[in-house]
Amino acid sequence: MKRMIIATKNKGKVAEFQQLLTKKGIEVLSLLDYNDIPDVEETGTTFAENAILKATTIANMLHETVIADDSGLIVDALDGEPGVYSARYAGEGKNDQANIEKVLVKLQGVPFEQRTARFHCTLAIAKPNGDVTTVDGVCEGYITEKTIGENGFGYDPIFFVPEKQRTMAQLTKEEKNEISHRAKALQHLLHIWDKLFEKGNES
């Protein structure tokens, strides 16, 4: 496999995939490279359902192997919200700052030790022949009381990573790619990569 299409138009996600997959000698394309691919409506109720839906839909359109991810923030004190609705938690506009503010408002008065949360990522790899494989990755942490840091995207500025003693938005790209939910899911994918794409089984 010399080329892989990532079913996203999120530049931040594309950059993370590129940094991790180019090490494998893989050219990474995304939906930003295709002008006529419509957004796939995420109608699933789980990360896996949405990832599979996106991957299979785009694989059928392009007749190529496609990776799609569905990921989000799970906050225990909010009964798992925002979950699969992370990107549009504050509305359909997918506004990162509005999403962050909604989480912080809902957590007002909750002590730090009860602000446990995790980023979850499910990757679905769909082949044109209909085969689909999923892998997962999780990063545990806490929600801060205010935004800290300028890097990353999404909820990174309010997600404190205990092992780094910093928020995700304070980490360099290299540091984030050591511990992020997407990086862990990709590492799981790379472990089974050769089996998935062994010679003669790449269709």
TrEMBL record:
Protein name: dITP/XTP pyrophosphatase
HAMAP family in UniProt: Non_canon_purine_NTPase
Metal-binding found in the keyword field: yes
Molecular function GO labels: dITP diphosphatase activity; ITP diphosphatase activity; metal ion binding; nucleotide binding; ribonucleoside triphosphate phosphatase activity; XTP diphosphatase activity
GO cellular component, one term: cytosol
Cofactor details (free text): Binds 1 Mg(2+) ion per subunit.
Summary of the function given for this chain in its UniProt record: Pyrophosphatase that catalyzes the hydrolysis of nucleoside triphosphates to their monophosphate derivatives, with a high preference for the non-canonical purine nucleotides XTP (xanthosine triphosphate), dITP (deoxyinosine triphosphate) and ITP. Seems to function as a house-cleaning enzyme that removes non-canonical purine nucleotides from the nucleotide pool, thus preventing their incorporation into DNA/RNA and avoiding chromosomal lesions.
UniProt-listed GO biological process terms: nucleotide metabolic process; purine nucleoside triphosphate catabolic process
CDD domains tied to this protein: HAM1
Catalytic-site annotation from UniProt: 70 (proton acceptor)
Family annotation (NCBIfam families): PRK14822.1, RdgB/HAM1 family non-canonical purine NTP pyrophosphatase
Reactions catalysed, as given in the entry: ITP + H2O = IMP + diphosphate + H(+); XTP + H2O = XMP + diphosphate + H(+); dITP + H2O = dIMP + diphosphate + H(+)
Residue positions binding substrate: 8-13, 71, 153-156, 176, 181-182
Keywords tagged on the record: Hydrolase, Magnesium, Metal-binding, Nucleotide metabolism, Nucleotide-binding
Quaternary context: Homodimer.
Organism: Anoxybacillus suryakundensis
Cofactors that this protein relies on: Mg(2+)
Stored Gene3D superfamilies: 3.90.950.10
Chain residues that bind Mg(2+): 41, 70
A matching Pfam family: Ham1p_like
Record-listed E.C. numbers: 3.6.1.66
Biological classification of the source: Bacteria, Bacillati, Bacillota, Bacilli, Bacillales
